[in-house]
Amino acid sequence: MSREKKFGIVILIFLCISLGSGGFIFYPASEDDAGSKGAAANTEGQELAFEMQKKETAAADKMQKIQSGLLTGTLTQEEAAKEIESAKKYLEEHLEDFRDNEEFLELLYYSAFLQNFWADSGNKDVIRQNELISIGIKMHDYLVDFYSNGLEAEEGADDYAKRMKSVSNSEILELIDLIMED
Questions:
Q1: pLDDT digits 0-9 by tens, 34-64
Q2: Angle at 25 between CA 104 and CA 84, to 5 degrees
Q3: Most buried among 50, 61, 64, 142, using CB within 10 Å?
Q4: What pTM was computed for the model?
Q5: Measured between alpha carbons, how far is residue 129 from residues 112, 114, 179 in Å?
Q6: Closest by Cα among 12, 24, 174, 16 to 96
């Protein structure tokens, strides 16, 4: 698989993360909170949400610039690799938030199988391919179970969350590493 395709997949992952994760930061005050305590909690939640939104917007802009630079030739692959490494560090710092986002996990699953479909174009490392596919299959199984139980079913969501924890942070990060490797 060409480096351009790999960059495209990873950029897509980070765009999905940066645009889809904001809902995990905002915690509005409950109905039981009253007076200044409730107002203070709500204000704090709004400030946190605003700060996260700014970071997400900046990350999305950065990824779009990388993609545009690669397509137009104004950004070399080496420069793009440095930018993506910086974005990966951001992912590592916030992984516990992102891993709860089913859209992100679904995208990781699709990226794993895209990598598999494109493997014949260059990546001949069978062991690496098998590792990648096994992670993708594991994520796929969890997603199928989650959706078959229904997004509205609390027991389905709880079950999904518990089993998703068995996919380690290192496996998720390894998946991105595998996509980026030749």
A1: 455 455 555 655 665 566 566 556 655 666 6
A2: 45
A3: 142
A4: 0.33
A5: 9, 11, 10
A6: 24
